[in-house]
Amino acid sequence: MTALLPRRGLAQILALIVILAVDRVVSPQFFDLRLQDGRLFGSLIDVLNRGTPVALLSLGMVLVIATRGIDLSVGAVMAISGAIAASLADSHSLAVVLAAALGAGLICGLWNGFLVAVLGMQPIVATLILMVAGRGIAQLITEGRIVTFSSPDLVWFGNGSILGLPVSVAIALGMLILTGAVVRGSALGLLIEATGGNARASELAGVGTRAMILAVYVWCGVCAALAGVIAAADIMGADANNAGLWLELDAILAVVIGGTSLFGGRFSLVLAVLGALIIQTMNTGILLSGYPPEFNLLVKAVVVLAVLLLQSPKLSGFADVVTRLRRTKA
Amino acid sequence: MENSPDSAASLLEVRGISKSFGAVRALQEVDFTLRAGEIHALLGENGAGKSTLIKVITGVFQRDAGIVRIGGEEVAPRSAKAALQAGIATVYQEVNLLPNLSVAQNLFLDRQPMRFGVVREGEMRRRAKALLADFGLDIDVSAPLGNYSVAIQHVTAIARAVDLSARVLILDEPTASLDRHEVEILFGIMRQLAKRGIGIVFVSHFLDQVYEISDRITVLRNGRLVGERETASLSRLELIRMMLGRELAETTSARASAGAQTAREVCASFEGYGKAGYVAPFNLELRHGEVVGLAGLLGSGRTETARLVFGAERPDRGQARVEGAPVRLQSPRDGVRHGFGYCPEERKTDGIVAELTVRENIVLALQAKRGLHRPLSRREQDEIASRYVKMLDIRPPDPDRPVGLLSGGNQQKVLLARWLATSPRLLVLDEPTRGIDVGAHAEIIRLIRELCDDGLALLVISSELDEIVTYSDRVVVLRDRAHVEELAGEAIDVGSILAAIAADGASVAHEGRA
Q1: Which residue in the set A187, A200, A207 is minimally distant from B349, CB to CB?
Q2: Comma-separated ranges of CATH 3.40.50.300 domains in chain B
Q3: Is B454 strand, coil or helix?
Q4: What are phi and psi of B178, to 5 degrees?
Q5: Structure pTM?
Q6: How is B87-107 classified by DSSP, letter by letter?
């Protein structure tokens, strides 16, 4: 489990602390928490709650990117699963609703994985297909309307609470632990990193690289579907046009901020989720500051640039050399 | 090496070129002379320095020392474009034109006939057609280049180069993907260009073609010039000796005395094993405690044999057996499952996972063999890694260092460790000593012998013949993608291997290639 949080997490933690401090300055009540009806409220909880969909997406995305792939379709998969969940919510049990929505995500992931691993398509193109088609499928499911529901079971996903935490946050935390346990508790993590680091060499070493690639796209689809259910539950409806719109970009950004290279190889689940939180902390802070939302994108870009600079190979390579020199002198 | 007195006639003169990459000296004081109107073959095994020399001449790399003269005038091109302006054009094996543009556009790229800022398509097509007609080619020049065969793409690239007033034309493995008929056409064009006074450098590993087309031959080995000869007066045996042999200090097999090979148990056997267009069907028996060397020139089918044996390539005929039982080897996973290991020639691209640590690289094959659900614990990994770091003396002895930071020799040891950790019955080593320093070189050879004494079966490819002679119990000689001879025991010496490689094989030269 040690590999869940490697030494290189420093830049991300530092960035999060700085942004939290800035948020505290623009909004003095930022760290205030209060308990109401057994549930915590406050800006921090908002950050976690709002950050959940991207955090879930980044859990799947980080594995895909570790294999040197990318999944552009996660936003569209969110729309599909949200549409399915909303359409079935009032007529079926929660188990059926979840099974159908997550099953759809699994099928979407299989499709992407099939295109990439079996047909050998470039990931960016292969997943672009579903990115475009998926939103169309979602619109067909909702017949172009915004489908609303009132099933208390599903609504609970959006605004219920477990041990004071919003349900969605608890789910994301659970998924992080589950993914970590599967990936690092089995040999999957090593084999995924090997596949992403050098697929040819890994295959010659006997690694089932195709199976690895298929598996990560499937998991990415499932994570996206779960994020879609939560997003739908949050607004008690499914909007096929806007659910998860552009979130694939935030998820990729979260992974990159989390220090996983788009060239594949080494990855960290925890840091990817931390990346998602950094993005959301920023969004919330800018909203609270009262600056016009136009600033949002600019500020975001600057902060992202700063985090990436902190972990750029040139800079850290420089730091490495310095420490090595010191060590040899000692 | 006499200084050519007729330097007036020499078109391209290269004197004392040296080039290093870090600590690796790729070229050391290499001379090369190309006369106007001659076809000059540049030969050498992988890593001999042919491509480096070409890249230095064409300005892709900057030389460390030496001079290059064209028509007596010193040039120092800093880019391929500058080289072209100086009159040197290169056509690579992978044609570097744009397959999605038309033939005519490719021919006149960057210099299309224009009028009022608009490309004159008709004029361009007319001129393209005329240009290609010179080369005996009558094709639709408005069709995308990618629609045509590699041969036509090559001719197009050559036509473009010649039309750009090249005086020196460098052809890097131009025939590698051509069939016999296309080779004839290309050779016709080459002869015609030579008659017009263009000097042609021909890089190829097909010796038959070299003898057919070239006037003179320059051989490089390990970054040094071995010699320059007239093709007509150079025997095939002598040429191969120049390419492969050291000074023929008759090394005989140190293991030959081991003698009683028949007593050893067969580990794996291959009967009528092969793949069309890849390597001709062969019979091969690999026995426990025995090293089989694969000898032959570049492209003779050595690596292909290794990949078939390991399972990295699927055979289309023949039967493989492991310990007597028939098996199917369809993928590396099959090979690994049956206890095979394979250290490929290209360590960086096919061997190591550079950013992962020494430990992770060592346990990779074992973990893949055990499967996902039986992960090696960190403690087991550490134990395995430190055992092999110690056993193979991997330096620095730090299992948590990314393997990409290690030297070539140590990376090779890590790959050996990766396979040894799987307790294999057969190891296939493709050029295990290439590109590693002298110390590690000797160690790896010592290791090969030790492993063999422990009962492992080994199949080893090497271009260093005296090396093969030193450790092999048997040597299989390959030529033109076929196994042509097997030497055993006392019969193994550099001379007989060279003779087997050099034996006239023209009749099978192009069989099976599409």
Answers
A1: A200
A2: 10-247, 249-339+425-513
A3: coil
A4: -105, 150
A5: 0.76
A6: TEEEE-SS--S-TTSBHHHHH
